[in-house]
Protein backbone atom coordinates (compact mmCIF):
# COMPACT_ATOMS: atom_id res chain seq x y z
CA UNK A 1 0.00 0.00 0.00
CA UNK A 2 1.43 3.32 -1.05
CA UNK A 3 1.28 5.87 1.74
CA UNK A 4 -1.16 8.56 0.65
CA UNK A 5 -0.84 12.20 1.60
CA UNK A 6 -3.77 13.95 3.28
CA UNK A 7 -4.30 15.91 0.08
CA UNK A 8 -4.46 12.70 -1.95
CA UNK A 9 -6.91 11.12 0.49
CA UNK A 10 -9.09 14.22 0.36
CA UNK A 11 -9.12 14.14 -3.44
CA UNK A 12 -10.02 10.43 -3.56
CA UNK A 13 -12.90 10.79 -1.11
CA UNK A 14 -14.23 13.97 -2.70
CA UNK A 15 -14.62 12.33 -6.10
CA UNK A 16 -16.12 9.12 -4.74
CA UNK A 17 -19.86 8.60 -5.28
CA UNK A 18 -21.84 6.85 -2.54
CA UNK A 19 -24.94 6.06 -4.55
CA UNK A 20 -26.34 2.52 -4.20
CA UNK A 21 -23.84 0.15 -5.82
CA UNK A 22 -20.87 2.47 -5.30
CA UNK A 23 -18.15 2.09 -4.22
CA UNK A 24 -19.40 -1.42 -3.36
CA UNK A 25 -22.76 -3.22 -3.15
CA UNK A 26 -23.23 -2.66 0.59
CA UNK A 27 -26.31 -0.39 0.29
CA UNK A 28 -28.04 -2.59 -2.29
CA UNK A 29 -27.47 -5.73 -0.23
CA UNK A 30 -28.47 -4.05 3.03
CA UNK A 31 -31.79 -3.06 1.45
CA UNK A 32 -32.27 -6.58 0.05
CA UNK A 33 -31.69 -8.17 3.44
CA UNK A 34 -33.92 -5.66 5.23
CA UNK A 35 -36.74 -6.39 2.78
CA UNK A 36 -36.37 -10.11 3.45
CA UNK A 37 -36.46 -9.66 7.24
CA UNK A 38 -39.01 -6.84 7.32
CA UNK A 39 -41.87 -8.76 8.94
CA UNK A 40 -39.78 -11.28 10.82
CA UNK A 41 -38.19 -14.66 10.16
CA UNK A 42 -38.57 -17.42 12.79
CA UNK A 43 -35.26 -18.59 14.25
CA UNK A 44 -34.28 -21.07 16.93
CA UNK A 45 -30.85 -19.49 17.44
CA UNK A 46 -30.19 -18.07 20.91
CA UNK A 47 -28.37 -15.27 19.06
CA UNK A 48 -31.29 -14.65 16.64
CA UNK A 49 -29.03 -15.69 13.77
CA UNK A 50 -30.42 -16.17 10.28
CA UNK A 51 -31.98 -19.66 10.09
CA UNK A 52 -30.50 -22.41 7.92
CA UNK A 53 -33.63 -22.83 5.80
CA UNK A 54 -33.45 -19.19 4.59
CA UNK A 55 -29.75 -18.87 3.78
CA UNK A 56 -29.80 -20.10 0.19
CA UNK A 57 -32.74 -17.82 -0.63
CA UNK A 58 -31.10 -14.83 1.07
CA UNK A 59 -27.87 -15.49 -0.83
CA UNK A 60 -29.84 -15.30 -4.10
CA UNK A 61 -31.22 -11.90 -3.10
CA UNK A 62 -27.72 -10.42 -3.01
CA UNK A 63 -26.43 -8.27 -5.87
CA UNK A 64 -23.83 -10.94 -6.64
CA UNK A 65 -24.87 -14.31 -5.16
CA UNK A 66 -22.08 -16.76 -4.39
CA UNK A 67 -22.37 -20.14 -6.13
CA UNK A 68 -22.74 -23.14 -3.81
CA UNK A 69 -23.75 -26.79 -3.76
CA UNK A 70 -24.89 -27.26 -0.17
CA UNK A 71 -28.15 -28.80 1.00
CA UNK A 72 -28.06 -27.41 4.54
CA UNK A 73 -25.60 -24.50 4.60
CA UNK A 74 -24.67 -22.79 7.85
CA UNK A 75 -24.43 -19.02 8.25
CA UNK A 76 -20.65 -19.50 8.40
CA UNK A 77 -20.88 -20.94 4.87
CA UNK A 78 -21.86 -17.52 3.50
CA UNK A 79 -19.34 -14.90 4.71
CA UNK A 80 -21.21 -12.07 2.97
CA UNK A 81 -24.49 -12.91 4.72
CA UNK A 82 -22.67 -13.29 8.04
CA UNK A 83 -21.04 -9.87 7.62
CA UNK A 84 -24.30 -8.18 6.61
CA UNK A 85 -26.11 -9.79 9.55
CA UNK A 86 -23.46 -8.48 11.95
CA UNK A 87 -23.95 -4.97 10.54
CA UNK A 88 -27.74 -5.12 10.80
CA UNK A 89 -27.63 -6.33 14.40
CA UNK A 90 -24.88 -3.97 15.56
CA UNK A 91 -26.61 -0.96 13.98
CA UNK A 92 -29.94 -1.75 15.64
CA UNK A 93 -31.68 -2.25 12.29
CA UNK A 94 -32.22 -5.96 12.99
CA UNK A 95 -33.63 -6.97 16.35
CA UNK A 96 -34.69 -10.18 18.06
CA UNK A 97 -38.09 -10.79 19.62
CA UNK A 98 -39.25 -13.76 21.66
CA UNK A 99 -43.00 -13.16 21.88
CA UNK A 100 -45.30 -14.48 20.53
CA UNK A 101 -42.54 -16.47 18.81
CA UNK A 102 -38.76 -16.20 18.44
CA UNK A 103 -37.99 -14.14 15.33
CA UNK A 104 -35.32 -11.87 13.86
CA UNK A 105 -36.79 -8.84 12.14
CA UNK A 106 -36.15 -5.25 11.08
CA UNK A 107 -37.05 -2.60 13.63
CA UNK A 108 -39.61 -0.37 11.83
CA UNK A 109 -38.54 2.77 13.72
CA UNK A 110 -34.88 2.20 12.89
CA UNK A 111 -35.69 1.58 9.24
CA UNK A 112 -37.61 4.85 9.15
CA UNK A 113 -34.51 6.59 10.50
CA UNK A 114 -32.47 4.78 7.84
CA UNK A 115 -34.79 5.96 5.07
CA UNK A 116 -34.41 9.57 6.26
CA UNK A 117 -30.65 9.46 5.56
CA UNK A 118 -29.11 10.24 2.19
CA UNK A 119 -27.05 7.49 0.54
CA UNK A 120 -23.75 8.97 1.75
CA UNK A 121 -25.05 9.03 5.32
CA UNK A 122 -26.30 5.45 4.99
CA UNK A 123 -22.94 4.24 3.69
CA UNK A 124 -20.94 6.11 6.33
CA UNK A 125 -23.27 5.03 9.14
CA UNK A 126 -22.58 1.42 8.20
CA UNK A 127 -18.83 2.12 8.07
CA UNK A 128 -19.12 3.64 11.55
CA UNK A 129 -21.04 0.59 12.82
CA UNK A 130 -18.52 -1.78 11.24
CA UNK A 131 -15.52 0.01 12.72
CA UNK A 132 -16.83 0.75 16.22
CA UNK A 133 -19.73 -1.56 17.14
CA UNK A 134 -19.53 -4.89 15.30
CA UNK A 135 -17.99 -7.72 17.27
CA UNK A 136 -18.04 -11.49 17.08
CA UNK A 137 -20.10 -12.03 20.23
CA UNK A 138 -23.21 -11.07 18.22
CA UNK A 139 -22.84 -14.50 16.58
CA UNK A 140 -21.86 -16.22 19.81
CA UNK A 141 -18.14 -16.28 19.01
CA UNK A 142 -15.34 -15.29 21.37
CA UNK A 143 -14.34 -11.62 21.29
CA UNK A 144 -12.65 -11.00 24.63
CA UNK A 145 -12.07 -7.27 24.25
CA UNK A 146 -14.80 -6.44 21.73
CA UNK A 147 -12.41 -5.30 18.99
CA UNK A 148 -11.46 -8.56 17.29
CA UNK A 149 -13.44 -7.84 14.11
CA UNK A 150 -11.55 -4.57 13.65
CA UNK A 151 -8.27 -6.37 14.37
CA UNK A 152 -9.10 -9.13 11.85
CA UNK A 153 -9.94 -6.50 9.22
CA UNK A 154 -6.75 -4.53 9.87
CA UNK A 155 -4.57 -7.62 9.76
CA UNK A 156 -6.08 -8.72 6.46
CA UNK A 157 -5.81 -5.30 4.83
CA UNK A 158 -2.21 -4.89 5.96
CA UNK A 159 -1.32 -8.26 4.45
CA UNK A 160 -3.14 -7.55 1.19
CA UNK A 161 -1.61 -4.10 0.84
CA UNK A 162 1.92 -5.52 1.07
CA UNK A 163 1.34 -7.48 -2.13
CA UNK A 164 2.46 -5.83 -5.35
CA UNK A 165 -0.41 -7.13 -7.49
CA UNK A 166 -3.66 -9.03 -7.26
CA UNK A 167 -3.48 -11.72 -4.56
CA UNK A 168 -4.14 -15.29 -5.71
CA UNK A 169 -6.03 -16.84 -2.80
CA UNK A 170 -4.64 -20.39 -3.29
CA UNK A 171 -1.21 -19.13 -2.27
CA UNK A 172 -2.50 -16.97 0.58
CA UNK A 173 -3.21 -19.19 3.60
CA UNK A 174 -4.80 -16.34 5.57
CA UNK A 175 -8.19 -17.08 3.99
CA UNK A 176 -8.42 -20.43 5.74
CA UNK A 177 -9.98 -18.70 8.76
CA UNK A 178 -13.73 -18.08 8.78
CA UNK A 179 -13.17 -14.71 10.49
CA UNK A 180 -10.83 -13.65 7.67
CA UNK A 181 -13.37 -14.59 5.02
CA UNK A 182 -16.06 -12.50 6.75
CA UNK A 183 -13.62 -9.58 7.06
CA UNK A 184 -12.84 -9.91 3.33
CA UNK A 185 -16.54 -10.06 2.47
CA UNK A 186 -17.21 -6.81 4.33
CA UNK A 187 -14.20 -5.11 2.77
CA UNK A 188 -15.62 -6.09 -0.61
CA UNK A 189 -19.13 -4.91 0.31
CA UNK A 190 -17.79 -1.48 1.21
CA UNK A 191 -15.71 -1.32 -1.97
CA UNK A 192 -12.33 -1.31 -0.24
CA UNK A 193 -11.22 -4.45 -2.09
CA UNK A 194 -12.31 -6.41 -5.17
CA UNK A 195 -12.91 -10.15 -4.82
CA UNK A 196 -13.27 -12.69 -7.63
CA UNK A 197 -15.09 -15.94 -6.81
CA UNK A 198 -15.13 -19.18 -8.77
CA UNK A 199 -18.21 -19.45 -10.98
CA UNK A 200 -18.87 -23.02 -9.82
CA UNK A 201 -18.69 -24.74 -6.44
CA UNK A 202 -17.61 -28.25 -5.54
CA UNK A 203 -20.27 -30.61 -4.19
CA UNK A 204 -21.12 -29.73 -0.58
CA UNK A 205 -19.16 -26.47 -0.68
CA UNK A 206 -19.42 -22.77 -1.51
CA UNK A 207 -17.48 -21.26 -4.42
CA UNK A 208 -13.96 -20.37 -3.35
CA UNK A 209 -12.38 -16.93 -3.46
CA UNK A 210 -9.91 -16.92 -6.34
CA UNK A 211 -8.29 -13.50 -6.16
CA UNK A 212 -8.37 -10.33 -4.09
CA UNK A 213 -7.23 -6.84 -5.02
CA UNK A 214 -7.07 -3.66 -2.94
CA UNK A 215 -8.44 -0.37 -4.30
CA UNK A 216 -7.29 3.22 -4.13
CA UNK A 217 -10.48 4.12 -2.27
CA UNK A 218 -9.85 1.32 0.22
CA UNK A 219 -6.31 2.58 0.81
CA UNK A 220 -7.65 6.08 1.49
CA UNK A 221 -10.31 4.86 3.93
CA UNK A 222 -7.98 2.44 5.67
CA UNK A 223 -5.27 5.04 6.23
CA UNK A 224 -7.86 7.47 7.59
CA UNK A 225 -9.49 5.03 10.03
CA UNK A 226 -6.59 2.76 10.96
CA UNK A 227 -5.74 4.57 14.18
CA UNK A 228 -9.30 4.83 15.45
CA UNK A 229 -10.38 2.83 18.46
CA UNK A 230 -13.94 2.31 19.69
CA UNK A 231 -14.82 5.79 20.95
CA UNK A 232 -18.28 7.29 20.81
CA UNK A 233 -20.25 10.15 22.24
CA UNK A 234 -23.96 10.25 21.61
CA UNK A 235 -24.06 12.50 18.55
CA UNK A 236 -20.66 11.91 16.96
CA UNK A 237 -18.33 8.94 16.79
CA UNK A 238 -14.57 8.99 16.33
CA UNK A 239 -15.15 7.77 12.76
CA UNK A 240 -17.43 10.69 11.92
CA UNK A 241 -15.08 13.14 13.60
CA UNK A 242 -12.26 11.88 11.37
CA UNK A 243 -14.25 11.82 8.13
CA UNK A 244 -16.75 14.68 8.33
CA UNK A 245 -14.40 17.24 6.76
CA UNK A 246 -13.57 14.78 3.95
CA UNK A 247 -17.18 13.72 3.31
CA UNK A 248 -19.27 16.89 3.79
CA UNK A 249 -22.52 15.16 2.76
CA UNK A 250 -22.31 13.09 5.95
CA UNK A 251 -24.25 15.22 8.42
CA UNK A 252 -26.55 12.71 10.13
CA UNK A 253 -25.92 9.19 11.38
CA UNK A 254 -28.01 6.13 12.13
CA UNK A 255 -28.01 5.92 15.91
CA UNK A 256 -29.50 3.05 17.92
CA UNK A 257 -32.51 3.98 20.02
CA UNK A 258 -31.63 4.96 23.58
CA UNK A 259 -33.21 2.71 26.19
CA UNK A 260 -34.99 4.61 28.93
CA UNK A 261 -34.19 4.00 32.59
CA UNK A 262 -36.73 1.43 33.74
CA UNK A 263 -38.10 2.35 37.15
CA UNK A 264 -39.84 -0.16 39.37
CA UNK A 265 -39.57 -3.03 41.80
CA UNK A 266 -37.34 -5.75 40.35
CA UNK A 267 -37.84 -9.39 41.26
CA UNK A 268 -34.61 -11.28 40.56
CA UNK A 269 -33.84 -14.99 40.68
CA UNK A 270 -30.27 -15.57 41.84
CA UNK A 271 -29.21 -19.09 40.83
CA UNK A 272 -26.33 -21.50 41.20
CA UNK A 273 -27.24 -24.77 39.45
CA UNK A 274 -30.58 -25.80 41.06
CA UNK A 275 -30.07 -23.66 44.16
CA UNK A 276 -31.69 -20.23 44.04
CA UNK A 277 -32.69 -17.18 46.04
CA UNK A 278 -35.33 -14.60 45.10
CA UNK A 279 -34.41 -10.96 45.58
CA UNK A 280 -36.67 -7.91 45.36
CA UNK A 281 -34.83 -4.63 44.96
CA UNK A 282 -35.30 -1.10 43.50
CA UNK A 283 -34.24 -0.12 39.98
CA UNK A 284 -31.63 2.20 41.50
CA UNK A 285 -29.67 -0.72 42.97
CA UNK A 286 -26.18 -0.85 41.45
CA UNK A 287 -24.87 -4.07 39.97
CA UNK A 288 -22.16 -3.98 42.63
CA UNK A 289 -24.89 -4.05 45.29
CA UNK A 290 -26.81 -6.79 43.47
CA UNK A 291 -23.59 -8.84 43.49
CA UNK A 292 -23.04 -8.18 47.20
CA UNK A 293 -26.65 -9.16 47.98
CA UNK A 294 -26.29 -12.37 45.97
CA UNK A 295 -23.06 -13.35 47.70
CA UNK A 296 -24.57 -12.62 51.11
CA UNK A 297 -27.63 -14.71 50.22
CA UNK A 298 -25.33 -17.65 49.41
CA UNK A 299 -23.18 -17.08 52.53
CA UNK A 300 -20.08 -16.31 50.48
CA UNK A 301 -17.20 -14.16 51.66
CA UNK A 302 -16.89 -11.15 49.37
CA UNK A 303 -13.11 -11.18 49.14
CA UNK A 304 -12.57 -11.92 45.45
CA UNK A 305 -12.95 -10.05 42.17
CA UNK A 306 -15.93 -10.60 39.89
CA UNK A 307 -17.44 -9.63 36.56
CA UNK A 308 -20.94 -9.64 35.07
CA UNK A 309 -21.90 -10.37 31.47
CA UNK A 310 -25.11 -9.76 29.56
CA UNK A 311 -26.19 -9.12 25.97
CA UNK A 312 -27.45 -5.74 24.82
CA UNK A 313 -30.24 -5.14 22.30
CA UNK A 314 -27.85 -5.70 19.38
CA UNK A 315 -26.73 -9.07 20.72
CA UNK A 316 -23.27 -7.86 21.74
CA UNK A 317 -21.79 -9.26 24.92
CA UNK A 318 -21.37 -6.51 27.53
CA UNK A 319 -18.85 -6.87 30.34
CA UNK A 320 -19.29 -5.07 33.68
CA UNK A 321 -16.34 -5.42 36.03
CA UNK A 322 -15.65 -5.23 39.73
CA UNK A 323 -14.75 -1.60 40.66
CA UNK A 324 -11.63 -2.93 42.39
CA UNK A 325 -10.52 -4.43 39.09
CA UNK A 326 -10.86 -1.02 37.47
CA UNK A 327 -10.01 -2.13 33.92
CA UNK A 328 -13.13 -1.90 31.80
CA UNK A 329 -15.62 0.43 30.14
CA UNK A 330 -18.33 -0.33 32.70
CA UNK A 331 -17.83 -0.59 36.46
CA UNK A 332 -20.41 -2.43 38.56
CA UNK A 333 -20.84 0.40 41.07
CA UNK A 334 -21.68 2.83 38.24
CA UNK A 335 -24.38 0.74 36.51
CA UNK A 336 -27.85 0.62 38.04
CA UNK A 337 -30.31 -2.20 37.52
CA UNK A 338 -32.76 0.06 35.68
CA UNK A 339 -30.07 0.88 33.09
CA UNK A 340 -29.42 -2.73 32.11
CA UNK A 341 -31.11 -3.45 28.73
CA UNK A 342 -32.75 -6.70 29.82
CA UNK A 343 -36.43 -7.63 29.96
CA UNK A 344 -38.42 -10.19 31.93
CA UNK A 345 -36.95 -13.64 31.39
CA UNK A 346 -33.53 -12.29 30.40
CA UNK A 347 -30.43 -13.09 32.42
CA UNK A 348 -26.93 -11.92 33.18
CA UNK A 349 -24.07 -14.11 34.33
CA UNK A 350 -21.90 -13.44 37.38
CA UNK A 351 -18.39 -14.87 37.48
CA UNK A 352 -17.06 -14.63 41.04
CA UNK A 353 -13.50 -15.51 42.10
CA UNK A 354 -11.35 -15.90 38.99
CA UNK A 355 -9.50 -18.77 40.66
CA UNK A 356 -12.41 -21.02 41.66
CA UNK A 357 -14.72 -19.57 38.97
CA UNK A 358 -18.09 -19.58 40.72
CA UNK A 359 -20.78 -18.92 38.10
CA UNK A 360 -24.18 -17.56 39.09
CA UNK A 361 -27.16 -16.57 36.96
CA UNK A 362 -29.23 -13.45 37.68
CA UNK A 363 -32.62 -13.62 35.96
CA UNK A 364 -35.16 -10.80 35.82
CA UNK A 365 -38.44 -12.49 36.76
CA UNK A 366 -40.63 -9.37 36.83
CA UNK A 367 -40.57 -5.58 37.07
CA UNK A 368 -43.43 -3.77 38.79
CA UNK A 369 -43.13 -0.34 37.16
CA UNK A 370 -45.98 1.03 39.29
CA UNK A 371 -43.86 0.62 42.43
CA UNK A 372 -41.27 3.40 42.24
CA UNK A 373 -40.80 3.81 46.00
CA UNK A 374 -37.35 3.37 47.44
CA UNK A 375 -37.07 0.37 49.77
CA UNK A 376 -34.48 -1.93 51.27
CA UNK A 377 -33.65 -4.98 49.14
CA UNK A 378 -35.07 -8.20 50.58
CA UNK A 379 -34.73 -11.94 49.95
CA UNK A 380 -38.32 -13.20 49.58
CA UNK A 381 -37.85 -16.90 48.74
CA UNK A 382 -35.18 -19.57 48.50
CA UNK A 383 -34.58 -23.18 47.49
CA UNK A 384 -31.69 -25.47 48.30
CA UNK A 385 -28.62 -25.22 50.47
CA UNK A 386 -25.84 -22.86 49.45
CA UNK A 387 -22.64 -24.60 48.29
CA UNK A 388 -19.53 -24.48 50.44
CA UNK A 389 -17.39 -21.63 49.17
CA UNK A 390 -14.14 -23.18 50.36
CA UNK A 391 -13.30 -26.86 50.20
CA UNK A 392 -10.66 -28.64 52.29
CA UNK A 393 -7.93 -27.82 49.74
CA UNK A 394 -8.53 -24.10 50.19
CA UNK A 395 -7.40 -24.14 53.81
TrEMBL record:
Positions in coiled-coil regions: none
Membrane-spanning segments: none
InterPro entries for this protein: MM3350-like_sf, Plasmid_pRiA4b_Orf3-like
Start and end residues of each Plasmid pRiA4b Orf3-like domain: 268-388
Name of the featured protein: Plasmid pRiA4b ORF-3-like protein
Amino acid sequence: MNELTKAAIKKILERQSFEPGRPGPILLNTEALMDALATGVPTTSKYFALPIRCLAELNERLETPIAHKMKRPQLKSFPTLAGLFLLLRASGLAIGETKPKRVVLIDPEMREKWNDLNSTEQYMSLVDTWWTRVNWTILGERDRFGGQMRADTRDLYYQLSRQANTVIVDSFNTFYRYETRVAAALLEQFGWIKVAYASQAEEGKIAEMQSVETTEFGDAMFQTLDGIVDSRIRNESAVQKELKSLVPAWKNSLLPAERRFREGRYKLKLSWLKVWRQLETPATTSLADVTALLLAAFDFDQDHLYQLEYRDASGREVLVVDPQYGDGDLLADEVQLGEVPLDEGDSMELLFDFGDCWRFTITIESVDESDTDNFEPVITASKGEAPEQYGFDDY
